[in-house]
Amino acid sequence: EAQLDDAALAERTFEQALELQPEDPRALAELAKLRQGGADWDGYAAAREREAEVASSKAEAVAALVDAARVHRERRKDDQAAKRALERALEKDPDAAEAVALYGSLARRLLDDKTADQLAMKELHGAAAPSPERQAELHAGLGASALRRGEPDEAARRFREAVAARPGYPPAIQGLADLAAQSGAWDEVEALLRDAASQGGVPPQVAAQ
Question: Which of 1, 47, 130, 146 could bridge 151 with an S-S bond, Cβ 3.0-4.6 Å?
Answer without folding.
Answer: 146
